[in-house]
Amino acid sequence: MSSTISFPRPDGQSVNGYLAEPAGAAGAPGIVVIQEWWGLNDQIRGVADRLAAAGYRALVPDLYRGKSALEANEAEHLMKGLDFGDAAGQDVRGAVQYLKRSGSRRVGVTGFCMGGALTLLSACNVPEADAACIWYGYPPLEYVDAAKIKVPLMGHWATDDAAFAIGGVDALEDKLRAAGVAYEFFRYDCKHAFANETADSKNLPFLKYDPQAADLAWGRTMQFFAQHLK
Length: 230
Hints:
The chain is α/β, with parallel strands linked by helices. It has helices at 42-53, 72-80, 84-101, 114-125, 166-178, 211-229; strands at 2-8, 14-20, 30-34, 57-61, 107-112, 131-135, 153-158, 183-188.
């Protein structure tokens, strides 16, 4: 069962989101799903539906407030207009708080591309979260206060990623290790957005769907969330 809902941010403003509920949703664990730079589109709704089918209450906050993009230049414009600190500390945190208030004892966060970067920021700035899984995205590392990360992290990275260079992942690992964060990162011999089944339709040379890598990463993600949320 899915619906569009409205939920409050910590500052009292309201945000819309797409909520996919599993059968027998009462008390099911929750996962906040953070969009790619394209916006809250059918593909990211499909991710929420997939998580709901696996027994999670999945909520996608509408970070772009109803806007979405089909072309890369539109997506870049929308992403550049987004306040990442506000999105993580208010929209995502509000979504986590909503899921907890409405019956989920434990709530994770996951996101892809831009949403991966926001997942990492949320691990720093959303104390109510219980686990976080990043898919091929990180913010400028000076914004990552690894000492504030108290939840287990998983990360899936593409070694041939033109959008988020793998060298940045190595530097991120150094920060996480120094802060004693419990994390597990996996690298895949792929391009950016390897788990997005619509990537090839964008006709962009730096995007490439890889179903084999996607299946492997999804299996690891499901084990991770089952361990920390169920």
